[in-house]
Structures are given as C-alpha cells and as structure tokens.
Amino acid sequence: MNRTKEFWLLRPKTVIHICFLLVFLFSTTLTWREAMVLKNTYEVNQQIGLNTITSGLERQLQRSLDELFFYRNMLVHAMQSPVENDNIRKQLRLFQQLRSLSVWHLTPNIKRTMQLSGISDDELKLFPLMERHDGEGMKNELTAAMEMSFILQLNDPNHNFHSRLWYISRSGFFLSSKPPSDDKETLESFGLFMKRSYFTGMSPELNPQRKTRWSRLYDGAFEEGKMVTASLPVDLNGHWYGVLAMDFSASRVSDFLQHVTPQSHLGSVQFYDREMNLIAASPGSPLIREQLDAGEVNKLIKAVKKSKQGALRFGTLFVSWVKTSNSEDVMVNVDTLKEGIQGETGRVTLVLVLMWLLFSLVLVLSHQALITLVTRMLKLQEQLSWRANYDGLTRMLNRSAFFERADELARGCQLKQQAFALIQLDLDRFKLVNDTHGHQAGDRVLSHAAAILQETIRVKDAAGRVGGEEFCIALPDTSKEEAIAIADRVREKLAKKQVPVSSTLLLHITASFGVASSEECGDYEFESLQSVADGRLYIAKESGRNRVCSEG
Question: Which is the catalytic residue, given 58, 141, 147, 469?
C-alpha cells in the first residue's frame, strides 16, 4: 500500500498520462459506438430506400407478367373452345391459300385487329423447333391467335411498361403488338426467334416446370436498344404450341428508376440480371465495373449470390443490393463517400467526428498545459528540496539532512548487525584564512575540501557539512580500522593539494580527524557516536593538528 502511494506521489506525470489516456479512450469508444449506430442507421436507410425502389419496379413488372398470364390463359381457353364465324372461316381458308408463300399475313379486321405474320411450310423446315401439322390443333391455334389480336390492338405502348408483346407459334407464325413493317423484317424476326433464349429455352426439355423465364440483356434487332425479355410457354394437352414473350427496353426501365427514385436519394441506382450484367441504371451514374477492380467485382458477385440483400464497402464506395422476387435480378445502389456525407446521416456523422476531433484537440492541449505546469512544479520542488537538504557552497548534505541520513544508515547497520563508523573532521586554521584572505578565499577552501571528500569516500557512504568548516562522514558496514584508513586517505589528499585562492596565491590546507565506531562504543546511536568522534577531533587538534585520532 505504501509503495503504491509512493508511486502516485513520485510519478505525477505518469498519473496524468494514464488519466488523460483513459479519458481519450473513453471518449473515442463512445464516439466509435455512436458512429457505428449511425453507420447501421445509414445502411438500414439505404436498404429501405433500395427496397422501396425495387418494390416499385416489381409492381410494374408484376402487372406486365399478370398481363402475360392473362394472354396465355386466354389463348388456352380459346384453343379449347374456339369461336367460329364467317370472318374466322374466311381467314382460315386464306391461310391455306397463303401458307406456301415465303411470307404471309392474316388480318381478320383491318381496323380492329393486329395482323398475324408467318412463313411458308418450306421455310419452316429450316428451324428444328418448328412444326406445322394440319388438323384441329393448327386450326384452333390460329383461331385463338386471331381472337387475341382483337384484344392486343387495345394495347397502348405509351402507357405499358413493356415495349412489345409477342406470341410466337411453333406452327410458323407470330403475333406482335408492334407488327413487322415489311416481309424482310418478318423473315428476320423469325430468324432471331429461333436463336433467342426466350424461345429456345421454353422447350419441355429445358423448362420442365413450364415457368416464366427471363433472358439476359441483348441488343434489339431493329434499333430498339438494349432489351430483356420475359417468356412463358403455351401448352395444351401435353403439346407445346408456342411462346408468349414480353420485351422490356433498358431505356424504359432506366426512366422508371429515375421516376421512382426519391429526389432525396443521393446514390446511383443500377439494375442487373442474375449474372450481374447491367440492365438499366439511373442517368449519369458510373457503373460498378467502372468503379471497382476485377477482384472487388468478383467479391460483390459472390456476396450477391449468397444473400438476397446486403451491403459491402469498397474504399470510399458503399454498395448495397436487393434481389427481385420475380426474376432474381439485382437492384444495386452505389454511394460515394461524398454522397454519404451529403445525406442526413452523413452530416450527423460528420458533426460527431468534428466534435470528437475538437474534444481530442482540447484534451491534448489541456494535457500539454498540465504536463508543463507539473514539470515546472516538479522542477521547483526539486530545487526547494535540494536547497533544503544540501549546502549551496559545498553541494554536500547540510547538517539536518546529513543527521537524518546518517541516523538511517546507523539503524540499518544495527538491524543487520554490521559495524558502523563515523569520521568527524575540521579544517585547521580556517578562521585565519577568512581573516587574512577574505571570505571568498575561505569559500574556495571549503569547496576544495568538499570535492576531496566526495572523490575519496565510497558510494555507500554519506558525507555532509555540519558546521562552518566541519564535515562528517557516515560509514556503514565499516570497522574502526577501515574508518581510520579512510580518514588517513582524506587527510593525505588534503595535505598534498594546494588551493588556488587567487591568480598568485596558493594555500596549503590540512584537517584534523576524529573517528568513532559502534564496535568499541557498543552503541548505534548516531548522536552518541558523533559526540565521541567530535571529542576525538578536538584531541587531534590539541595534539598538533593534521592527524587522525581514534582514542580518548
């Protein structure tokens, strides 16, 4: 307990360092905790915003898909229960007349229907998935397609989210909400159908569940820009008749993203397919592959495949994503650090960081000011302590400090049952030096004598100035004989050296010594031993000076 108290008292700088460090760590921990709360809030807000945008897009897609299912149900129903009238029978007879032509068209009602476009029996043989059989199945399919054309002509391309609706029959004809402009375009369209995954992937072998499939992003054939297509097989009684397909242009999806994204949203919204190929993006937004390197892109793709939604940070970019429920496409939001700071959460975080920096700066300045103050106080304390314990002239322990130190050494020797000795010495005829040459010369003599003492005694010994020209040496673990030898060495060095008191005057100084030991006195009391040594000092003076007296 005493050692702990002594540590805190003797090392105030360490205490200050520890206290300020604890305060800094505490404030940093609190700031970090609040920053993490804000970070989580920011991520949640971004996820909510992305979910809102994704939900809006999904609703639009779902309306289109519902329409796609409606047309399929209508076609299947129409094939099961075909309508017969004069106009239909006329078109069926016309088909029999035109089917040998390379390209043919049927228009049940020019004003109220869309045209059916087809290719010849011979052209049809060039495509492996196509087949044309005569009979009720072919007749019913054509009838159903003509019924569908009555409804399809009511489509408004300016208000539909999809850009085109197709029915592609394996019997070699198709119906489109945007009919081909000429025979060349009709043939080209058929050639493209046979290559596109939205048609070839609908075979029972490739789509046994008969579910809706989405194509990858591709270039439209007739300057339509980037497209993605949702397709649905049309089956009846185990026979695959054809495919209903719905095209969505990337530009229309981009326009919708811009429309549905809140104005307060600062990040760039991008829509990708399940292979992370871009479908659409908000205007002017840099793409992920332009902002990330290949390794970061691969890391993002792996993370997207593993979870339906999430977020990753790449340097100053924050990327969050949500998968759509219909197609497993991915809606991605990319925020830069600048955009994040401009948001409400970012501004609060910035204020928090600035407050922490300001607090840390004040803390550092306070720490430096306090350390400077304590340093000066310790220096002043050291100076006062030195002045209280040392003689300013000889730089040796003064009387009270020496007595305290010598008494401590004596008690230590008593506890260890070691010998303890004292040497009392007095400079000979010192008063004469002061009277003859002045006090300045006397001060030089005292400094000279002190230096001789300091260089002669051992490290474990203690020496002090106990009077005007009197000095005393405490010798722990020292016998009387050893003390006498030490006294003799000091006496000889003093006697040999001369003291320069001026540029032309050298003084010869000697001293008389008295030695006392605990061995002969049987006493460890410092004052008793000092009294004995002092008495022997005066005996040495009376018997001729410049000598050591250890008896009497």
Answer: 469
| Entry pTM | 0.61
Is residue 469 annotated as part of the catalytic site, yes or no?
Answer: yes
Residues listed for the chain: 552
Inter-residue contact 316 to 341 (CB < 8 Å):
no
pLDDT digits (tens, 9 = 90+) for 39-91: 888 778 878 888 888 888 888 888 888 999 999 999 999 999 888 888 888 98
List, for residues 212-241, the tens digit of each pLDDT value: 888 888 888 777 788 888 999 999 998 999
Q: What is the DSSP letter of 427?
A: E
How many whole angstroms separate alpha carbon 428 and alpha carbon 121? 145
CB 82 within 8 A of CB 347: no
From residue 126, alpha-carbon distances to 123, 131, 191, 245, 347 in Å are: 6, 10, 10, 22, 65
H or E stretch covering 385 = helix 344-389
Half-sphere exposure of 370 (CA within 13 A, CB side): 15
Tell me the C-alpha to C-alpha distance, in Å, between residue 119 and each of 91, 124, 240, 274, 464: 16, 7, 19, 35, 126
Tokens 């909400």, located at residue: 177
Strand partners, 335: 318
Query: 232-237 — which CB contacts under 8 Å span 24+ positions?
Result: 232/68, 232/69, 232/72, 232/202, 233/202, 233/204, 233/207, 234/72, 234/75, 234/76, 234/167, 235/76, 235/210, 236/76, 236/79, 236/80
Rounded CA separation 43/318 (Å) = 9
CA dist 213 and 209 (Å) reads 11
